[in-house]
Amino acid sequence: MSIRCYIPTTLDALRRGLASVHAVAPDAHGRGLGGDELEAREFDALYIAAALAATQSFEDGPADIQEPSPRAVVAYDAPDATAGEELVDGFDLLSLPEVDVTSIVSIHIDEVEVWEEAAKIGADGGREAAEDHLGDSDLLWYDATELPELLRERS
């Protein structure tokens, strides 16, 4: 068995490879649900990770670079024994010392136009305004097999 979790990251971090990262997952009770209830919990975990990824995008870049790296969320099937702690009620923050690329399920990123708007808002109005803008947008879904092409296209 595995735990479906969501790794908040950036496209630049994806290019470097994922190691020693954290991921958001429904807690043990949530993972025990089935059908639509489990799907809803996983969707919520994805959007918690997306908010964390937005924060990373606007905090991780060097001060002399105006354009932050676009946010990304990686859907990942972590081993069942992965250590974690409560993040917020109903959700755990898992510690992943390494990420097996064969267990990546999908990648979720913002549309180019949405990201560019957020970066401009961040430059003009600050990180919180940019994060609020991103909170109103949906993420695009890419299959794990599309990752190399996605990274080439979004350089």
Description of the structure:
- With 155 residues, the chain is α+β, with helices and mostly antiparallel strands.
- The protein has helices at 11-16, 28-31, 35-60, 112-125, 127-135, 147-153; strands at residues 2-10, 19-26, 71-79, 84-88, 91-98, 104-109, 140-143.
- The strands form two sheets. A four-stranded antiparallel β-sheet has the order 1-3-6-7. Strands 2-5-4 form a three-stranded antiparallel β-sheet.
- The longest helix is centred in the first third of the chain and has 26 residues, at 35-60.
- The chain starts with a strand and ends with a helix.
- The model has no long low-confidence stretch (mean pLDDT 91).
- Evaluate the radius of gyration: 15 Å
Number of DSSP strands? 7
Strand order of the largest sheet: 1-3-6-7
Strand content: 25-35%
Q: What would you call the structural class?
A: alpha+beta
Overall 3D form: globular
Topology as H/E string?
A: EHEHHEEEEHHEH
Overall pLDDT confidence: 91
Helix content: 40-55%
* Individual helix count: 6
- Largest β sheet strand count, sense and barrel closure: 4 strands, antiparallel
> What's the end-to-end separation, in Å?
35 Å
- Spans of at least 5 consecutive residues with low confidence: none
